[in-house]
Amino acid sequence: MYQNELRALKKAGRFRERKQFDTHLIDFASNDYLGLANDKKQFEKLCKMFETYQVFAPKASMLVNGYHPVHQAFEEKLCRLNGFESGMVVGSGFLANMALIDALVRKNSILFMDEEYHASGMMATGLIKERVVFFKHNDSEDLRKKMAQHQAKRQIIAIEGVYSMSGEICALEIFKIADAKGALLIVDEAHSSGVIGKNLLGVFEYYDIAIKENHIKMGTLGKAYGSYGAYILASREIVSFLENRAKPIIYSTAPSVIDTALALINLNTVSKKAKRYRQKIDKRLKMVEEILGVKRETLIVPIPVKSNQEAVQIQQMLIEKGFLVGAIRQPTVNAPIVRFIPRLGVSKKHLREMLRLIRDTSI
Length: 363
Fold this sequence. Notes:
Layout: H1 3-11, E1 26-27, H2 40-49, H3 69-82, E2 86-90, H4 93-104, E3 109-114, H5 119-124, E4 132-135, H6 140-149, E5 154-160, H7 172-181, E6 184-188, H8 203-206, E7 215-220, E8 230-234, H9 236-245, H10 247-250, H11 257-272, H12 274-292, E9 301-304, H13 308-320, E10 323-324, E11 326-328, E12 337-340, H14 348-359
Parallel strand pairs: 1-10, 3-4, 3-5, 5-6, 6-7
Antiparallel strand pairs: 2-8, 7-8, 9-12, 11-12
């Protein structure tokens, strides 16, 4: 039924499939930025934590009886660290973006979204087509112009703290525009929390921005926090509104208790050892600059390539040498890249070897 479409994807070098890679490969492809996803000590802490609980699964939505003490403890910890009034755990980053956009962009509202926002946000805009305006990527002047052209009772801006494919940090000026206009500002911090900022708290800390009632921070547990799930931090009013209007929250089983507990354990570790992690991240970024001549402020390193086929070929070459990187093609990106993460779960020795292989490859 879909044979022609699949053939076209293969011909264009865009065909993808799930794979289980050799576990002996040195992993530079995953978003496990701090190496917590395979830390057995953290898992042992998780097992010990659940000796005190009688319920291990959510059983229902959070608004029925699926809201577990672990969910609340995680939310409260995040709020204290990040300076927000209230928060809630969500099943995934995809659901968090769907919840925010579907619920908050009401009648007489306009959403101004960065044209390179995550696919989950893009999908959500399909529900509000007449109320969304896209602005040029990370372009504060284009945002300012679009906001002047499209007046509304409520203006909402959606950006990412760090963009997942380019590793680019969002522009500080966009925060200033949101505050000056009184617009709600949604910041997807999936790739910035746990990576940037003095204490690894993300882009608000990176820019030393005081949290205001128009700020909304969402992020995932499946990247720096080494687990699965997501969260939303905002004012009490907005969180209460989401509890009453956000369909992915109202009609979904509450997030996994075990995954949330693991994220809480990892969050505690990151907050205690932030200075040490910050130093390790900086050392790896320095190695990338010294060997590849590429200066980065985040742990996402994209290498442009000429074609989809070349991206796959370079990935395969590195696999044969014992290293795994991402071969990222359309529609995830406009032009193909080889993407790697100099993550803390890998030794500096292995990072150095992989960087030299990339350097010596005629890309």
